Amino acid sequence: MLRYLLDNKVSFRDDSILVNGYIPHYPSTFTVRSPNFFAEAARTMPTVLELEHYGTVKKLGNWTAAEGSSLAKHGGGKTGPDFFRGALELLQATYIGYHGYAREWIEDNPQLTVELLNRCGYWFFPDFVQIADRLVAGRAAEMKVRWRNRGVARAYFDYQLVVRLEGAGQAEVRLPAGNTRWLPGDKTWDETYSPAIPGTLPPGEYQLKIKLYSPQTQRDVKLPLKADRTDRDGFYSIGTVVVAAPGE
């Protein structure tokens, strides 16, 4: 059955995180009964996590691991948010739900909400960008970027790295980003790109800018860089380079 579902691109959703009856039986997997199903599915498609009804979790004392609650007895000192975090990572979930009233959830968990939003799915960080400070019009440059995925899942569509030069003229190059290789975890992913510098670009000093773009959804993929590095077109300023004319 598992093989049939995966072969037909049917993913998995777990709606049972912190269900009271599961806590005594599956505490070591944060109430996830079949983590192997999700490990298989997450290789090729998004998975989904949803909490037991948030109001029910609170009522039974399992959100705070209140004295006498099932989580206090079997959770090994962990709280409801700890189980939510653990299940999120174990399931490699792209989509998550708290299963309750939005106002109640956000009033109770403002910081946790931001944390979980950043952790679910992928979260791409460019650790560094390396490029020569002098480029030549009409030639391809070599640009190295070290990427890190601080989310819990991979991206399932190919994105583009868009490189822009702004100065006496303007040029923009789109390149395959290689992002579907950037798996979550401590490992970093080094990519080497070769943006072609147009031969018609006037010599001078230029601002080098980059962004990730999703052709499938026709939207930018935001990067966790400081707001003052971002322009109105969604590009992130990396630094200054000089473009020289051929033969200079």
Task: Supply database-style keywords.
single chain; 248 residues; alpha/beta; Immunoglobulin-like; six-stranded mixed β-sheet; three-stranded parallel β-sheet; elongated
What does this molecule look like?
With 248 residues, the protein is α/β, with parallel strands linked by helices. The chain has seven helices and twelve strands. It has helices at 2-7, 35-41, 54-59, 70-74, 80-91, 102-108, 110-119; strands spanning 13-17, 48-51, 95-97, 124-131, 134-136, 143-149, 160-166, 170-176, 188-193, 204-214, 219-221, 236-244. A hairpin with a 3-residue loop joins strand 7 (160-166) and strand 8 (170-176). The longest helix has 12 residues, at 80-91. The model has no long low-confidence stretch (mean pLDDT 95).
Approximately how much helix is present in the residues?
10-25%
What is the CATH fold-level name of the largest domain? Immunoglobulin-like
Shape: elongated
Over the alpha carbons, how many angstroms does the gyration radius reach?
Answer: 23 Å
Describe the largest sheet.
6 strands, mixed
Proportion of residues in extended strands: 25-35%
Which spans have pLDDT < 50 for at least 5 consecutive residues?
A: none
**First and last CA, distance:** 66 Å
The count of DSSP E runs of length 2 or more, i.e. the number of strands, is 12
Q: What is the number of domains?
A: 2
In short:
With 248 residues, the protein is an alpha/beta fold. The chain is 21% helix and 29% strand.
Please give the structural blueprint.
Layout: H1 2-7, E1 13-17, H2 35-41, E2 48-51, H3 54-59, H4 70-74, H5 80-91, E3 95-97, H6 102-108, H7 110-119, E4 124-131, E5 134-136, E6 143-149, E7 160-166, E8 170-176, E9 188-193, E10 204-214, E11 219-221, E12 236-244
Parallel strand pairs: 1-2, 2-3, 5-12
Antiparallel strand pairs: 4-6, 6-9, 7-8, 7-10, 10-11, 10-12
